[in-house]
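hiii, so i know i said id send this last week but things got crazy w the move. better late than never?? heres the sequnce for the chain we talked about at the cafe, plus the structure i predicted for it. fair warning i was half asleep when i ran it
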Amino acid sequence: NMKKNILLLLLAILQACSIQDKEAIKRIDANPNVRTINIDNGFYIESISSAEYFNSPKTILLETTDSCLIQEIQSLEVYENNIYILDNSANRLYIFDMEGHFLHQIGSPGAGPGEYIQIADFTIDRENHIIYVYDEFASKVHKYDLQTSQYLSSITIQKTGNQSFYIQYTEGKLYLNETAINGKEPKHLLRMLNAQTGKQER
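okay and structure toks below
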């Protein structure tokens, strides 16, 4: 009887989960801002040659000095003939040109205006030529002018108790990933923030 009751309980739980999943799918399908991709219509490709999508590769040897000794690359972006590299171990954001020459770094570690405690990630606003540097430890995003690398301002992000490691700028919004560490919330979340104020909008 005990085994039968446990089996019935498990079946009831599975049915409830199935109903919740269907309701969630209905809400997603009804949202005009969400694009649904049917992966069942996809097709398998054995291998892809990079030459089909990229021009001939170019090797860039980065300058190595005491001021720019790369240890662990966390993020990398290429913009307007410059290479932006976030070194996680050194806690530095370096800028190189396309020949590999070191130009300078953006900001510096510290607790003063325009300084960061620990960079988690960065993102670039290509229209307004601004680079956003996310300091996860201080719950702040620092803004710097891309052309001069001068500090502009900072916005404070409300703490949620979760961890965030990645940031992306898109059309006036900043998107932050969140990983729940208390086990009570969905494990992976995405926050949408106003890029000017840092206020969470979704």
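btw The first strand starts at residue 73 and ends at 79. thought thatd interest u
miss u guys!!
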